């Protein structure tokens, strides 16, 4: 299992719009959005999907989404 982390523009009220999309995807085991974070961080636990799959899914839903760099690689 891997955890993919993204910067988004998904706000609190927007979570209702993407919840069915993420909940229904069989390859997504768990997901969360930290709307208190300045980057509105989306975390997705998956075994089979990659960053591009998630970015495409979120962008098709009408939101911005980009990979958030690994904090350890920035140091």
Describe what this molecule looks like in 3D.
This protein has 75 residues and is an alpha+beta fold. β2 (28-34) and β3 (41-46) form a beta hairpin. A 4-stranded antiparallel β-sheet has the order 2-3-1-4, covered by helices on one side. The longest helix has 10 residues, at 15-24. The chain has 3 helices and 4 strands; from the N terminus they run βαββαβα. The mean pLDDT is 92. It has a single domain (2-74), classed as Alpha-Beta Plaits (2-Layer Sandwich), CATH 3.30.70. Helices cover 32% and strands 31% of the residues.
Helix content: 25-40%
Instruction: Kindly provide the name of the CATH class.
Output: Alpha Beta
Binned strand content: 25-35%
User: What sequence of helices (H) and strands (E) makes up the elements?
Assistant: EHEEHEH
What is the number of independent domains? 1
**Weakly predicted, low-confidence segments:** none
The CATH topology name reads: Alpha-Beta Plaits
In DSSP terms (H or I, runs of 4 or more residues), the helix count works out at 3
What's the end-to-end separation, in Å? 25 Å
- Average pLDDT figure: 92
Radius of gyration: 12 Å
The description of the largest β-sheet is: 4 strands, antiparallel
- The chain-level structural class is alpha+beta
Q: Judging from the principal axes of the Cα atoms, what is the shape? A: globular
Strand order of the largest sheet: 2-3-1-4
CATH architecture: 2-Layer Sandwich
Count the strands?
A: 4
Offer a concise description of the structure.
The protein is 32% helix and 31% strand. With 75 residues, the chain is of the alpha+beta class. It has a four-stranded antiparallel sheet with strand order 2-3-1-4, covered by helices on one side.
